[in-house]
Write a structure and sequence with these properties.
Among the domains are: 36 residues; 55 residues, no CATH class; 48 residues, no CATH class. Helices cover 47% and strands 4% of the residues. It contains ten helices and two strands, in the order H-H-H-H-H-H-H-H-E-H-E-H. It has a two-stranded parallel sheet with strand order 1-2. It holds the Pfam family UPF0240. This is NADH dehydrogenase [ubiquinone] 1 alpha subcomplex assembly factor 4.
């Protein structure tokens, strides 16, 4: 609750704080004598003690602007003719910097796929493809054929095909229909993920169409 009230307070007072802010800032910048930046507490005490021990003439000179000193400072120029030293970083062959700085796109599946896959293993891309082909044509792409194609264990392949499915996009024939009954889902065959299945309109929708036509 306190954070909410604090945020509301800042939002309410923001227009007042920002009112004529440019003019106020310009007025402060153009001031001939601006306030000195605050010093640290320890530094301030040391400076005050050193000023107290000085004679009155020195104290008055510290409070006035010394034009002679400022003119002398303007005549001072510092130049350097020494060559700039460049420190070369020795190359470490074990930790060399990348020579190719081109843009690297993110992998399709969130991680880099291995170039070599051992027997009994399969990449995510091939697994999705095999499951999709089995959904599309289970008689042709059986567990035995997929296991032989990708060098997998046949028993494990059967379990994967039984318990895993790829996403299926089901588009009803009626665009206004918002609900698909479980009966329609059960009667719809699983297809490959790149396909779109147009479902037939239900009997109720067909009846409504007949009434509208009559």
């Amino acid at each position: 609750m306190g954070k909410v009230m604090s945020a509301l307070g800042r939002r309410v007072t923001k227009p007042i704080r920002d009112f004529n802010v440019e003019s106020r800032a310009h007025r402060e910048i153009t001031k001939e004598k601006r306030p000195v930046a605050p010093r640290h507490e320890s530094t301030r005490l040391i400076i005050e003690e050193s000023i107290k021990n000085q004679p009155e003439e020195v104290k008055k000179s510290l409070e006035k602007k010394d034009d002679i000193l400022l003119n002398r400072l303007k005549q001072i120029y510092v130049t350097s003719e020494d060559p700039m030293l460049t420190k070369e970083i020795p190359d470490n062959p074990e930790r060399s910097l990348p020579s190719d700085r081109s843009f690297v796109a993110d992998p399709e599946y969130g991680f880099y796929e291995p170039k070599a896959v051992p027997y009994g293993k399969i990449t995510l891309r091939n697994a999705l493809h095999a499951i999709g082909m089995h959904q599309q044509d289970p008689e042709q792409w059986t567990a035995k054929k997929i296991a032989y194609e990708y060098k997998l264990d046949e028993g494990l392949t059967e379990k994967v095909l039984r318990h895993f499915r790829t996403f299926v996009l089901i588009v009803p024939d009626d665009a206004k229909k918002k609900r698909i009954t479980p009966e329609v889902l059960r009667s719809t065959p699983l297809i490959a993920p790149h396909s779109i299945k147009q479902l037939p309109a239900s009997s109720s929708n067909a009846a409504e169409k007949d009434e509208k036509a009559s």
